[in-house]
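Sequence dictates fold. Below is an illustrative record:

_____
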Amino acid sequence: MPGTLFYGWKIVWAILVQLTFTSGLSFYNHAIYLNALAAQPSFDVQSASTAVSVFFLSGGISGLYVAKLVRDYDPRLCITAGALMASLSLAGLPFVSNLAQLYVV
């Protein structure tokens, strides 16, 4: 039928919106987070940069296990849980006062 929208395009648009937010808030904003953290008296550029490196390393490793979770469980549940964890970490970032808290968040 010429007037109907293929369901796969809805999924493509949903993934586009999701990647826009996640890439913008996690990948492209690290320079902003790094400058803000390095301006704090409890952090220097090296410690903040190390935390960013650990973030990327842990994200790469955990992605292997998340793929299994998405395969075994409902992908919507996995995406929602990941978005909730990322939101809580981002919301907790302004309250970080020492290096141990930075690694937890």
Residues 7-104 form one domain. The chain is about 80% helix and 0% strand.
